[in-house]
Amino acid sequence: MRLLQKHLCAIAMSLWAVSAGYAAPLVQPTLHIKPDASGSGRVALTLDACGGKTDTRILSALVENGIPATIFVTGIWLKRNADAVAIMLAHPDLFELENHGGRHVPAVDTPQKIYGIRSAGSADAVLAEVESGAAALAGTGEPAPKWFRGATAEYSPSAIAMIRKLGFKVAGFSINGDGGSLLGARETARRIAAAKDGDVIIAHINQPTHAAGEGVVQGLLALKQKGLTFVRLDDVDDVGDDGTTD
Ligand SMILES: [Zn+2]
């Protein structure tokens, strides 16, 4: 009887290990840029264009104020926003376009939902998401992307390893500026204006009807007024955790 109990216990343990392996905890990596100790500080602004339209409040403010940004675009967004893409391509000094995937599915190789979005669900589907995003960018004539950020910015560790093998760095962030574009204008402005030397800000440029976009502009102008400078991810050395950049 004791032997049977032991045996059952061992089976339960191995089942637990299998299911734990199946649903490996997701990671949301952090990214910083190398601080600029000598000056008044620098930050990297990253803006996701997941799908939908273009927030011209943000795009115009960037152009008018000469604020450079790294824009993570999906294949879906590129197809529907030719005017905005043209403005970005006309200002190569300001805009670095990077890979946010072909179809905006999370780079997670097990089937699950993240913030209500169905994950890629398999290794092949993760690869397809990353490669189709890069292919869509190649169609614009932009330089080949060097960075990837998956939908929801959450990853399975095995997906990160796959994306790195394809030659991309994985773009985390250190300040969640707009809470997925769902925050109010005031809170968004407060979060962005609080950025310090070395921070990487994430916000969205594809939700023109959301209040958060107004806060993005206010927060950026506050940083500019404080004398902080803006850089793109490719302009500086970057340090990410969870094996995303090393
Ligand atoms: Zn997105």
Strand count: 12
Tally of alpha and pi helices: 8
Unreliable spans:
13-21
The rough form would be described as globular
Look at the structure and give the mean pLDDT: 92
What is Rg? 20 Å
Largest sheet data: 6 strands, parallel
String of helices and strands: HEEHEHHEEEHEHEEHEHEE
Small molecules bound in the structure, each named once: zinc ion
- Structural class estimated from helices and strands: alpha/beta
Calculate the terminal CA-CA distance, rounded to whole Å: 53 Å
What is the beta-strand fraction? 15-25%
Q: What features would you describe in this structure?
A:
The protein has 246 residues and is α/β, with parallel strands linked by helices. It contains 8 helices and 12 strands. The protein has helices at 2-22, 56-65, 75-80, 82-90, 123-138, 157-165, 185-193, 212-225; strands spanning 31-33, 42-49, 69-73, 95-99, 113-114, 117-118, 147-148, 169-170, 175-176, 200-204, 229-231, 238-240. Strands 2, 3, 4, 9, 10 and 11 form a 6-stranded parallel β-sheet that branches. Strand 5 (113-114) and strand 6 (117-118) form a beta hairpin. Helix 2 (56-65) runs parallel beside helix 8 and helix 7 (185-193) runs parallel beside helix 8 (212-225). Mean pLDDT is 92; it is low at 13-21. Residues 48, 50, 100, 104, 151 line the site of zinc ion (ZN). Zinc ion is lined by residues 48, 50, 100, 104, 151.
